[in-house]
Amino acid sequence: MIKAIQYFWTASIKRQLILGIALVHAVMMSIFVVDLVEKERDFLTVQHNKTAKSLTKTLASASTSWVLANDVVGLKEVVTSIEYYPGISYVIVLNLQGQVLAHTDKQYLGKYLSDDKSIAFLKGDIETKSVFENDSYIDVVSPILRDNQHIGWARIALNKNEINQGLYNVTLDGLIYILIAILIGILFGYFMSIGITKGLYEILESIKKVKDGNQDAHSNLDRIDEIGVLSYEFDNMIDVIKASKEELNTINERHELTLNGLKDGIWDWDIKTDKAYFSKSWKGMLGYEDQEIKNNGKAFFNLVHDEDKEKVKNALHMHFKNPLKNKYLIEVRLKCKDGSYKWVLSRGKVLLDDSNNPVRMLGYHSDITIEKEHEAYVLKQQKEMLEQSRLAAMGEMIGNIAHQWRQPLSAISMNSNNIMADVELDIVDNKALLEYCHNINEQAQYLSNTIDDFKNFVKGERKKTLFKLEDSINSFIKLVYGAIKSNNIKLELDIDKNIQINGYSNELIQCYINIFNNAKDILKTINEDERVVFISTTIENNKAVIRIKDNAGGIPEEILPKIFEPYFSTKHQSVGTGLGLHMTYNLIVEGMKGTIDAYNVNYEFNSKQYTGAEFRIILPFDIN
Asked: What is the pLDDT of residue 462?
């Protein structure tokens, strides 16, 4: 209903003017009529009250002698003389006790008044006063006095029929005036609206002509008011649009030439209709002529490699869901005209409507085939370097294992010699024999576990798993235990047992080994009683932080920035390849989406000051 009224009001300027002016006239005249009626009501009421009191006083004065004489017949004549005065409802003469001595209605003669209002004035002040008043009549009493002695009451009720009739006539006249004012307002508004809207209709007609393609459709109104100004500005706008259109056509031609000359391919996709624009460069990138690919979204999806289709759909879905958070930036393979595939970097941005529904998307394609081939070559090189690094680490661990095996092999040899001696001397004791066998079995189990640890490291697949940092550090310690013991290195651990990583445990162990091997080589140069490696794990800024620190004096400042570069080493070629820390950097940064840095630190340990190198690894809890 409200919308219908709003539409009716705003649909036409002419209607607004007519109704507006008529409404103003109606409101102003209504206010005038209401005010006039109220003032007339007040005036007539005051006059009516004065008349009622004057009649009551006259009745009281005429009744004085008849009340003293208690002459009912004389009082009746007095009452009758007033009874026919216009508007009289009733006339009463009372004694002081409230007994009716005369009344226009004979049935009340001799009776006493007992209503509350009558009792109130009988007991009240001796004066002329109103007993009761409403919209229909007024009841007034006046004392009957003889030589200032109160002897009775005169009471008259006067109806307000004349007042109400007069107010009715005034109101009726006012309504007629209001209707006349509304008609005048409608006529005035009508003629005013014709003068205003005539020019607007001429401008609208010119707009329709422009819409139909007539760029020279000027309104040319000969007016100096606001409509004339609007007409003048409209004509100027038509001239500007015409010039702008010519300039835009020129720009579009240049733009088309520019797009066709670019190496990148431009695309524009209307998501609702599936219509699309692909620049000549976009199609030429794949070896197609302009007319050989249909201009719709389906044509693009048909060219996407089967293995990449789901990736494209997911990327579009996430981008449509939250364009600011989820950028559309993916690498896909598109089928060329000759049947081969090219790697393309597809970038774009979606446009949403008011309901956050995707309506249009624009973007461009870049041919990254050469970059992807180079990336594959680099990846192959990195794998080869990783294998070299692993082989070097395996060499180190084989030496560690050889050292770790010396003691258990000696124990096995000693126990077997003891058994052979007892047999030769014929002093075999079953209890002693069992103890020798038990010792041999313990040492064999130790050797087997060492082989298992080595085998797990060497054959470990690149498979993402959820693991505890504590477990990966313990595995690392087992693998390098021989080197730790043979080089008299003390380990100081401060491990948070609750930290878990969803990543590649084996590659992280490889990183520990590479860092440890560098620390070990430097620690060999200092007093073997002071060789210490510190390992700690903490959670900082919602990420896992691993710190590995030694006390070997630190890394020279001039080479510190270069330590992660490939083939950089301060050791002799027979000792190191320079790949360990470089591979560690790649495994942490590229493989596990973390960071690694190295710096020198000064600290106190066992009441003694030390300087050493500290490696800090920061990893997300989930590498995805």
From this structure: 63
CATH class of 377-619: alpha beta
Cα 503 to Cα 293: distance, rounded to the nearest angstrom:
43
Q: Is the pLDDT of residue 388 over 70?
A: no
From the number of C-beta atoms within 10 Å of its C-beta (0-12, 13-18, 19+), residue 111 rates as exposed
**Can you give the residue ranges of every domain in the chain?**
14-165, 218-258, 262-367, 377-619
Higher pLDDT, 604 or 212: 604
Q: Render 508-529 in DSSP notation, one character per residue.
A: HHHHHHHHHHHHHHHHTTS-GG
- Bridging pattern class, strands 490-494 and 532-540: parallel
Amino acid 528 reads: E
Please state, in angstroms and rounded to a whole number, the distance separating the CA atoms of residues 585 and 357. Answer: 43
The token duo for 82 is 């007033």
Distance in angstroms (rounded) separating the CA atoms of residues 566 and 568:
5
- Render the burial of 488-499: b for 16+ CB within 10 Å, e for the rest: ebeeeeebeeeb
* Amino acid residing at 217: A
Rounded CA gap, 407 and 469, in Å?
Answer: 30
CA distance 326 to 76: 107
Residue 275 pairs with which residues in a beta bridge?
296
Any idea what DSSP says for residue 557?
Answer: T
Are 434 and 516 spatial neighbours (Cβ–Cβ below 8 Å)? Answer: no
- Among candidate residues 127, 131, 103, the one with its CA nearest the CA of residue 116: 131
The secondary structure element, H or E, covering residue 56 is helix 13-62
pLDDT value at residue 443? 55
Q: What is the pLDDT of residue 524?
A: 87
Residue 537 and residue 546 in contact, taking contact as beta carbons nearer than 8 Å: yes
Q: Do domains 14-165 and 262-367 have the same CATH topology?
A: yes
Both tokens of 388, joined, read 């070299």
Instruction: Give the residue carrying structure tokens 């085939």.
Output: 369
Answer whether 193's CB lies under 8 Å from 17's CB: yes
Q: Is the pLDDT of residue 562 over 60?
A: yes
Q: Provide the 10 A C-beta neighbour count for residue 386.
A: 18
Q: Is the pLDDT of residue 460 over 60?
A: no
- Collapsing DSSP to helix, strand or coil, 362 comes out as strand
DSSP character string of 315-338? HHHHHHH-TTTS-EEEEEEEE-TT
Closest CA to 50 of 61, 40, 42, 39: 42
Checking if the pLDDT of 51 tops 70, the result is yes
CA distances from 501 to 275, 510, 591, 621 (A): 46, 16, 13, 5
Residue-level length of the chain: 624
Q: What is the DSSP string of 188-220?
A: HHHHHHHHHHHHHHHHHHHHHHHHTT-TT----
CATH number of 262-367: 3.30.450.20
- Alpha carbon dihedral 78, 80, 81, 87, in 10-degree steps, equals 120
Could you count the other beta carbons within 10 Å of the beta carbon of residue 348? 20
CATH code of the domain made up of 14-165: 3.30.450.20
Mean pLDDT, range 59-76, rounded to an integer: 87
The pLDDT, as a whole number, for residue 597 is: 94
Which DSSP category does 279 fall into? -
Task: Check: CB of residue 522 under 8 Å from CB of residue 402.
Answer: no
Query: What kind and span of H or E run contains 107?
Result: none
